[in-house]
Each structure stands twice: as structure tokens, then as C-alpha cells.
Amino acid sequence: MNHRLNGVAPLTHSGLIRAQGDDAAKFLHNQLTNDFVLLGQNEARLAGFCTSKGRMQASFIGFKRSPTDLLLLCSKDILAATLKRLSMFVLRAKVRLSDASDDFALYGLCGDAVENAIKNKSLSVENIWAKADFDDISLVRLHPADGVPRALWVALAGSPAPAGVAIPAELWAWSEVRSGIATVTAPIVEAFVPQMLNYESVGGVNFKKGCYPGQEVVARSQFRGTLKRRAYLAHADVAMHVGSDLFIVSDDQPCGTVAQAAAAPTGGYDAIVSMQISAFETGDVRLGAVNGHLLTLSAAPYPLLADI
Questions:
Q1: How far apart are CA 243 and CA 261, in angstroms?
Q2: Count: domains in the chain
Q3: Residue 124 has pLDDT above 80, yes or no
Q4: Do the Cβ atoms of 218 and 50 come closer than 8 Å?
């Protein structure tokens, strides 16, 4: 285990959108890339909210507190705009959308903190995206970072913090990068279809559900074998920033984009980068310019769903 990644961090850069009402699950099902109608009480969903052109304008981790009460975790910097956009589609649906960020406390758990939370409550959240509820708290199992278990802790505001050593938010941010699953933030709104961030490979897209905005584009990208960009991990000795362009030496047109980045505890920066598959295969990708800093690239830390 990476012993640096062991403890509890407040998730200060995340917020919550709440959907309440008889049509809450159906409404989200019709707007997002994943199935929320069949979402069980013991599971969560990764999902994207796309434009009509299939470009992701937000990403969520969503789950039910009850059959008529759902929460969507997203980046706080796009929450207000996303809530406004989603609200435009409510029309006659029996659902009320609100910003519930102040109603809940959000924490990220890693390492022993995850194991202790599960053990102390006799919870069964071994599988990725599994959820368990206890004492008005929801615990969601997330993808690991370098093999270290991670989980999301959502409690009512004012609840005691989960047990565990406090770790800085910056270290949690690094664990998010190392998990290989990017969160949509302001600099990359409408930059990617879900597959460019590997969302279909980590449970973020359901190809069997009904229509949603951008569904035809997302499906066509998958079923016609036209995927030309994927998400990978990258390391650099210099700072990387979300939205920065990537280049290969032989082309002055960008081959990719930094999707998420964080300072690495051992020095330098780690990032999730979305780029042309052919550029990754060259192994010679530069940050910011054709003569920019050379990136050290590696594959995503999970298997990719093959083109269908």
C-alpha cells in the first residue's frame, strides 16, 4: 500500500445536486448516460451529462437516498451552471432540483479509513460503485488509486467526520488522478465525448438504456469503431494544468488535452490526459508545445472496453 494515501480528506471542491420527487429517477435517467431507473439502493452510478453533440458538460457520481431522493456529486465549479441547464429540461416532470452542497458533509476515504468504515459497520461495499447506508450516512466504493482502496463518505451537515488520520485535500486530488477517472471541471466542459475519458470502460455509460441528450453520437462512436482518443496517465517534472494542449513533435496541431492534474507527493505532477491513440503509441508527447516538456505516459489503470 502507498502509506501516504491513508486517511480522510474533506472534499472541498465537490458539491451536490439533489433531485427529489416521484419522477426524480426517471428524469435523471432521461438526461444522463447511465441507468437511474434501475439504480438500486446498494449501488451508485458514474454518469455524464452531455450536450446534443455528445460532449460532456458535467460528470456525476449519483445514488439514491430513497426511491424519490437522489444525490449527484459533481465539481463545485460547474455546479450552478449544470443545475441551471438540467432545470431547463424539467418541464412537467414531478422532480425538484436543488443545490444541496450545504446540507451534506463530503469526505474522501483511502486505505485503512475505508477498511475501518466497512469493518466497524459490517458493511458490504467490496465492489466498485457499491453503496451502503447507515446513520444517515452513505458510503460509496470508488475505483482504487495504485491499489489503495478509496470511498466517498456523504453525511448530513454537522455529522462527525469519519474516523481516520486527516490527509490534505491535495493528496486526495492526486488519488483521483491515479484512479484514472476524470471529473469534468470548468476548463474541459464540452471538450470530450464520454469515451475520450474512458467512461464506458468504468461503468459510466449504459448502451442499452433509452435516449438522452447526445446518445446517438455516443453510441455511434462506440459501435462504429471510430474511437480515436482515449484517456491515459501522464507524469511530468513541471506543473500541468487542466485544459492544456498536448503535442507530438511532428505536428503543430494538438493531439490531446490535460483532463485532470495534481501535484504528486514524490515530486512533479501526475495527470489524466485524453489524446489520440496514435499519439500515445509514439511515446513522444509534449506539454504545451511541440518542443514542450516530454511526458512520461502509461495506460489507464483498468482494462478498456474494446470497440464493438
A1: 10
A2: 1
A3: no
A4: yes
Spatial CA neighbour of 134 closest among 153, 149, 116: 153
Instruction: Give the cell for residue 223.
Output: 459501435
Mean pLDDT of the chain: 93
Question: Which residues, listed in sequence order, are joined to residue 144 by a DSSP beta bridge?
Answer: none
Q: What is the CATH number of the domain that holds 162?
A: 3.30.1360.120
3-state secondary structure of 7: strand
- For residue 41, is it within any domain? yes
Query: Cell numbers of 213, please?
Result: 441528450
| 7-10 and 131-134 beta bridge pairing | unpaired
Cα–Cα distance between 15 and 102 in angstroms, integer?
8
Q: Rounded CA gap, 271 and 105, in Å?
A: 27
Average pLDDT over residues 56-84: 98
Q: Is 242 part of a structural domain of the chain?
A: no
Q: Which of 148, 65, 73, 61 is nearest to 113 (CA)?
A: 148
Whether 308 has a pLDDT exceeding 60, the answer reads: no
* Lowest-confidence region among 3-7, 204-208, 253-257: 3-7
3 state SS of 23: coil
pLDDT band at 105 (very low <50, low <70, confident <90, very high): very high
Q: Where are the alpha helices (DSSP H) in 99-227?
A: 112-121, 169-179, 215-223
- Taking phi over 0 as left and psi of -120 to 50 as alpha, with beta for the rest, 67 belongs to alpha
Which H or E run contains 47? strand 45-50
Considering the domain boundaries, does residue 131 fall inside one? yes
In tens, the pLDDT along 197-234 reads 999 999 999 999 888 998 888 887 776 666 899 999 99
In this prediction, residues 66-76 reach a mean pLDDT of: 97
Pairing relationship of beta strands 269-276 and 285-287 according to DSSP bridges: unpaired
Three-state secondary-structure class, residue 31:
helix
Domain that holds residue 42: 7-179
In a domain, 249, yes or no: no
In this structure, how many other beta carbons lie within 10 angstroms of the beta carbon of residue 108? 25
